[in-house]
TrEMBL record:
Location(s) in or outside the cell: Cell membrane
Any one of the GO BP annotations: intracellular zinc ion homeostasis
Keywords of the record: Cell membrane, Membrane, Transmembrane, Transmembrane helix, Transport
InterPro entries the record matches: Cation_efflux, Cation_efflux_CTD, Cation_efflux_CTD_sf, Cation_efflux_TM, Cation_efflux_TMD_sf, CDF_Transporter
Segments crossing the lipid bilayer: 7-28, 34-55, 75-97, 109-129, 149-171, 177-194
Protein's UniProt name: Protein p34
Domain Cation efflux protein transmembrane as annotated: residue spans: 11-202
SUPFAM superfamilies given in the database record: Cation efflux protein cytoplasmic domain-like, Cation efflux protein transmembrane domain-like
GO cellular component: plasma membrane
Membrane-topology annotation of the record: Multi-pass membrane protein
Length: 295
């Protein structure tokens, strides 16, 4: 089992534990805000299951039908998670609307809030660990899951404070109000997640920092060449794709041009990790005098 898959299994286990705690908190109190918090965790468990399936499928090697591998499937998991978040938010808003007109006093608030607080601490700890592992492993599905978990921590903390105020002050309208605010925050989280995931499916280029690294390494490692132009990049899950045209002197031997390409590939893979590099070698007559000039 790969480290990415082990992490996905752990995330699912943590999600189920947190769901049990939040479900107990809502069952004991009957709070609409705690119901919203629990429903958010239901979405998280479903998303963690999807992330696990995506991670396992993305690890499959390239085949005849998928010559570039299966890594991009992780973006579909992130899109699904974003969609589930939007569905959960709409359900919470509906529940909050009904509770606004028929408010009720939360029961056993102390025990319920203690359970919810314990679930929030577990969520916050795991979200931090998951985010670091997801970035280290280059997994969009795990990173997306960590972002959602952290937003869950923020909303849960607000809900705990609010339900505590309801119990102390008797202001019952605070409960559905908090549920509604939770739904709004979830909506923003879901929209951001969908935007990032769709960007991956649409083959967005790497970020400015990575692009600067690529240009610097190509310039430094292409000694003997003239320039590199038409640089294009994209990401598919944990894999970074880089392609460009390398212009060399017309009289240069094929073996020498190949050595230059090898140097560039080695440097880029060392810096980017899991990368696929495609270099098209051209004679100097194809130079555009733009792009990356060789140092």
């Amino acid at each position: 089992m790969s480290p990415t898959e082990r992490t996905a299994w752990t995330s699912l286990g943590v999600g189920l534990s947190v769901l049990a705690l939040k479900g107990a908190a809502w069952w004991l109190t009957g709070s609409t805000a705690l119901f919203a918090d629990m429903l958010e965790t239901v979405v998280n468990v479903a998303a963690a299951s999807a992330a696990l399936a995506a991670v396992r499928y993305s690890a499959l090697p390239a085949d005849e039908n998928h010559p570039y591998g299966h890594a991009k499937v992780e973006y579909f998991s992130a899109v699904l998670e974003g969609t589930l978040i939007l569905v959960a938010a709409s359900m919470i808003l509906q529940e909050a609307y009904q509770a606004w007109w028929r408010p009720k006093v939360p029961e056993q608030p102390v025990i319920g809030l203690a359970l919810s607080a314990a679930a929030t601490v577990i969520n916050g700890t795991w979200a931090t660990i998951l985010g670091r592992r997801g970035r280290r492993l280059g997994s969009p599905a795990l990173v997306a899951d960590s972002h959602y978990l952290m937003s869950d921590v923020v909303t849960s903390a607000g809900v705990i404070i609010g339900v505590g105020l309801v119990a102390l002050t008797g202001l019952l309208w605070l409960d559905p109000l908090l549920a509604g605010l939770t739904a709004v925050m979830i909506l923003f989280s879901g929209w951001r997640l969908l935007r990032e995931s769709v960007g991956g499916l649409m083959d967005e280029a790497v970020g400015p920092d990575d692009l600067s690294t690529i240009r610097t390494l190509v310039s430094a490692e292409a000694a003997g060449a003239i320039e590199a132009h038409d640089l294009r990049t994209r990401r598919a899950g944990r894999i970074t794709f880089v392609e460009f045209h390398l212009v060399v002197p017309g009289a240069m031997a094929v073996s020498e041009a190949h050595d230059i390409c090898d140097r560039i590939e080695t440097a880029l893979k060392s810096a980017l990790g899991n990368a696929v590099i495609t270099i098209h070698v051209e004679p100097e007559g194809k130079a555009k005098h733009s792009g990356v000039l060789v140092l």
